[in-house]
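Chain A, query sequence.
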Amino acid sequence: MFSDKDLESISRTIEQMHDIVQRGKENNYSPQFLALLEERLNACRDQLSHLHEHLSNLSLELAPTHEKLISILRSIAAANTRRNFPTAEVKAFQSQLKDMENSKVDGIFVAADGTIPAGQQIVNELLGRCQQWAELVLERHGEFDEGFKPTYEKLCDIRNQLEKLTLTQAWSLRETDLFNFQCELDRIDEARVNGEFIDEQGNAANLFCQRTLLYLLRRSYAYIYSLIVSSEPVSEALLPVFNQLQTLRRCLIEVKKSGGVCSPRELYPYSMKLNSIDSMQVSGMFMVGEDIPEGQANVKSLLAECFDLCHDLKVEAEDKGPDP
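Chain A, predicted structure.
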């Protein structure tokens, strides 16, 4: 299940990828590689269009209700995978679902002005699914079938590790980390038969196990997507320089927000640090030994932004008057 907000995030990422491909054309990257990327982007756009079509009949009046139901469904699924089953929390979600059911008039969601908004079937089906899931989760009380426990525990472990990564600093995320997680998830996903999880004897999991395992699988994939989108595409070798520039940028922005500086002299520490980093380049490249690490464009762009911020602050200080 997904909401319009999920699609908005994916749409922005696709457009960002499109801009990167266009810049690649300007910088004479391999035409064959760029053509492959464009083909995959077009495939993503087609899938995104199909998903948008699914929600096209959902009215603005029912959109908040749909978002709330998606949130409740995911919250119940998350609560179901905790080590200590939170009965009171799941019952609270179940109570919210009952309130939403009781708010209907003759089985129909009615807008504030008395009209019947479009999207009734989408929201009613989702509400029914949430109610069914809440009842099933409370009935099972976190008890998982023995035949699927190894897969369940493996997915819980992957999910928990990825969750921890989302809370750490960018410099602690190695390039190979996400790839290894991705491979483990792919192996579990590809082991499904006709979309269903099966045990060693070839028996398909029941509805509770299927949904729980599928939630953990999708949640883990979502964490990887989030980490890829939020992490900076800079090699580990350049991260020390990149992190220094990020700190300088944040400081300069804060100085600008607080009203700037009274004198250009106050900017000397920033200018000296920037010039020191700039002088590290060899023939326009940040080198590590004889190697040219990936992420040159990102580091140079951040360095240029810091120089621009410093220059703007200097001009503003000069306009205020000469040094005393």
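The longest strand covers residues 281-282. The chain is about 65% helix and 0% strand.
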